[in-house]
Design a protein that fits this description.
Elements (H helix, E strand, L loop, with lengths): L3 H18 L5 E6 L2 H5 L2 H14 L5 E6 L11 E5 L5 E3 L4 H13 L11
Parallel strand pairs: 1-2
Antiparallel strand pairs: 1-3, 3-4
Helix pairs in contact: 3-4
C-alpha cells in the first residue's frame, strides 16, 4: 500500500464482496463448495457467477457457499433461490453454465431446464 486512497479502495472492494455474500436480497445463489465441488471446479463457477452479476450491475442477489450435498458426480452444484419461487438446483455448472444461469434465470426469470438437477 502506498497511500490512504489505496487502503480506502481495498476497503470498498471488500465491502462490496461482503455485501454480495450476505444480507436481504431478492434472490440467493448457493454454490456447493465441499471438497468434491472444489475438485470439480466450484471456485471457478463461483467466480463466474459473481463476475456475471457484477457485469450485469446486479447487486440484489446474495452469493454464498455450502458444503457437500451428497451428489458428488453432479458437482459443481448451484442452487438458485428466488423469493416466492421454488428453489432450483443446477448440476455440472461450469463457468459458461454459471453465466447462462445468471442471464436466463436471474435476469430473465426463466430456469435453464438443460442444467436442472433433481
Amino acid at each position: 500500500m502506498k497511500n490512504l486512497d489505496e487502503l480506502r479502495k481495498i476497503r470498498d472492494e471488500v465491502r462490496k464482496s461482503m455485501e454480495i455474500r450476505s444480507g436481504n436480497h431478492r434472490a440467493k445463489i448457493v454454490v456447493g463448495m465441499g471438497t468434491c465441488g472444489i475438485a470439480a471446479g466450484a471456485r471457478e463457477t463461483m467466480q463466474a457467477l459473481m463476475g456475471e452479476l457484477e457485469q450485469a450491475g446486479i447487486n440484489d442477489v446474495a452469493v454464498t457457499a455450502t458444503g457437500c450435498a451428497g451428489f458428488c458426480e453432479r458437482e459443481p452444484l448451484v442452487d438458485v433461490e428466488i423469493a416466492g419461487q421454488p428453489a432450483v438446483r443446477y448440476g455440472k455448472v461450469d463457468a459458461a453454465a454459471a453465466r447462462k444461469i445468471v442471464q436466463e434465470h436471474i435476469v430473465g426469470g426463466r430456469k435453464v431446464d438443460s442444467l436442472v438437477f433433481g
